[in-house]
Amino acid sequence: MAVHSRFRRVLRTIVPVAALLSGAGAAWAGTLASGLMLSTDAQRLDCFLSNVGTKPASISGVQVQNGGNTILLLTANSCDTLEPAGNCAFSADLDLRFSARAVVQFRGGAGSLRGQCQLTSSANHLIATTELR
Q: What is the pTM of this model?
């Protein structure tokens, strides 16, 4: 009986520690990304995010990459914490590769973020759009 009791005490200690180390109970984290878009007429990639859920989502990072995977300098970024029904946007000017894709890292709001990116010309004309998934 003493061995059984000691075993139960060890399990009561190990199980919570294992759950903590495995990330159980941690905030859900995720990534949204667009496909690569190309156009010699495009000057800029503009992206828009919306939180359609009932809980806040924290945007931990946004990036725009060209077709060679070089990270482009953001020219605008209003994304931080998105409250329910909140919106934000970020943009980057394209380089000589005339291509771009967006990547968004977030915490919380699993399944509640929606996003779209668009290529825009220097005359501010819409050229193409794609979803962030």
A: 0.79
Dihedral over alpha carbons 75, 81, 87, 93 (to 10 degrees) = 10
Q: Which of 113, 53, 54 is nearest to 79 (CA)?
A: 113
pLDDT in tens, 115-132: 999 999 999 999 999 999
d(CA 46, CA 116) in angstroms, rounded, equals: 8
Cβ contact 91:74 at 8 Å:
yes
Q: Tell me how far apart the alpha carbons of residues 80 and 106 are, in angstroms, rounded to a whole number.
A: 9
Q: Domain 27-132 maps to which CATH number in 2.60.290, 2.60.40, 3.30.200, 3.10.450?
A: 2.60.290
CA angle in degrees (0–180, nearest 5) for 57-65-95: 135
55: which DSSP letter?
Answer: S
Q: Does the pLDDT at position 16 exceed 90?
A: no
